[in-house]
Amino acid sequence: MAATKIIDAPRNGHEMAPLNTRARGDGTHGVTIVLTAPQRNSVQSVDIPGGEPERAAWSGKMQFFLSIIGYSVGLGNIWRFPYLCQQNGGGAFLIPFMIMLILEGIPLFLIELGIGQRMRLGALGVWNTIHPWLGGIGISSCIVTLFVALYYNVIITWVFFYLFNSFRYPLPWSSCPTNGTGFELEECAKSSETTYFWYRTTLDAAPSMDEPGGLKWWIVLCLLLSWTIVFFIVMKGIQSSGKVVYFTSLFPYIVLTIFFIRGITLRGAGAGLMHMYTPKVEKLLEPTVWLDAATQVFYSFGLAFGSLIAFGSYNTPKNNCVRDVLLVSVCNAITAIYASVVIFAILGFKATVNVDRCVDSNTEILVKNNLLEVNATRLVYDQTIAKYNTTEMAKFHLSECSLSHELDNAAEGTGLAFIVFTQAIVELPGAPFWAVLFFTMLLSLGLGSQIGILEGMLCTLFDIDIIKRVKKQHVTGVVCLFCFIVGFIFCTGAGEYWLKMFDSFAGTIGLVVVALMEMIAVIFIYGHERFTEDIYQMTGYRPGLYWQLTWRYIGPVIMVCILVSSVVFMVIRNPTYGAWNADLGMIEQKDYPNWVMIVAISMILAGVLPMPIVFLMRSFQCLKVDLDIHQGSIRRNETTASTKEMIDNDDDDDDEDDENDFSGPALGGHVKTQSDFSDDEEEDKPMTMRMMMMRPTTTTKTSNVLNVPTSRKPNYKKDAYDV
């Protein structure tokens, strides 16, 4: 009987099963098998001799936490949430916001972060691993993320332009420019100083999307600067971007605190806060308030971009992702409320200053018409104004000076940041200093979110084998260059109109559909019980009734409501955009041109169609599936005619001995899908070599069986050689 020698070495989770081979005449076996595991499921970034570099990992817990905070806490917390509070019931809006945060935001947040950490793959790899038919989810997520990245960096471009102009004294938006005769330009006089600087000096706005005008060279240069900075930040992945997040995540809180201390000491700050947070409980009866709350929670977390999956994939398998989700969620909500306090404290000051100017102007008119004494007090002024109705006030050209009216005119988005808040900054002593602080804060928030958006997209791209072979710096450079060139459409006079169109169509329906499919894929296809077990193995905490209800029932229902309402509102309400009318010095609403609507619908379809297309192509086997799910590769050095057929069959059924293995790709094991648990299929399968070897056998003196232990140890590798 030939001697058999076993050489033990550390294993990687796939050791060799017993082989019932027929000995050759010379006493040697006909098969030599060497098992190796792919390197992408390791925890640290180390090099294995003869293998590919391991998947990148966070250098520390703080780096991961700050990256998540920098991505989740973005510009929406500054210029969207305060506006929603003001328009939807003030302090009462916090009730639906917190409810939606608990029922929708936190559960979906854990799904993305947890599944990424479990499988240690990007968005494309995760959904392909769960089921090949779901591969379109990763493609859709990548396409929608590309659309958002295109226009999000344009906002950073505008912030750069304002930041550079903030170093001038006096601030260029503090007064209207004059013509050759010394009078203010009519366009500026009809609007305001900050409005004129935004629409004419910064954007040089066109009258409509049909007349965009040429490229604005100053915007093109700032856009080039923005993409260059973003490239150098993300070109090496988290190895480079992980160092920047210490600034982009922490600096906004420092600036907000400085503005908070200064804001609450200003005259009128209390009036602004009272106006914003005074509860209007009757507003809660309006369905749109709850829809706004759900939508704000969805977008404030940055769900469905693939970025959270990518961030989770860089974690160690034993990281407590449940704790991370809860901490980031609380931090996100507190930041939104904190930023609202700062914004409305300063807007209250601006409104008070505007009311004082209005009163002074009315007093001057009344004195000229001998209707008021020169040194009259404010009480006497109020009593005098109360005597006149609207017609009489118009006769004397008197204005209505109302603090609540001023506060009701608060804007959102670019209007809040570049028009309303800049006017408040002008009123502060040392205005350039506050302008530099404010726009540096916006720059930090924008870069933090843009880093996360691009990281999610690039991680998805690197799940593709062809792109995986190219250096990350080269792929990142090509992506940034492509986005810069496409971004030229935002550098024309119609740039803001295009940005609002992208924001309204490209990043809404597509993201909601992707998020809904993600929840269905994990909870109903991968299995909520299996995902619960994954969370338990990674964190030691088993998700209970709250998580099961929100994952299986409440969360999907909320996502469906958001999707249906978004489609209905888009159909019922004729989509319009605000175009700048230079003659009137104001914004006027215009319908989107037909060709622009075709572009908008095309973007929506581009973000949604990959899911059904991949599903149909793979279900009808029109597309080859090569997923590397089994996490092991077998290299045959030599075979005999008697064993070749059995080994070929054994490759196809390689996952049968993984039935009781709970270690997924993160630990070098197999990720099971629903198909793994079909008893009927197991009974119908032909007896293969591995199945035969799993049966008890009786060895005799004449038998020649190589009996190798089949216990699984994740960090052990065995090479078998026939002697």
TrEMBL record:
Belongs to the sodium:neurotransmitter symporter (SNF) (TC 2.A.22) family. Residues 648-661 have a biased composition (Acidic residues). Residues 688-702 have a biased composition (Low complexity). Its main location: membrane. This is Transporter. Coiled coil: none annotated. PROSITE patterns: NA_NEUROTRAN_SYMP_1, NA_NEUROTRAN_SYMP_3. GO terms for biological process: amino acid import across plasma membrane. It is found in: Membrane. It is a multi-pass membrane protein. It comes from Drosophila ananassae.
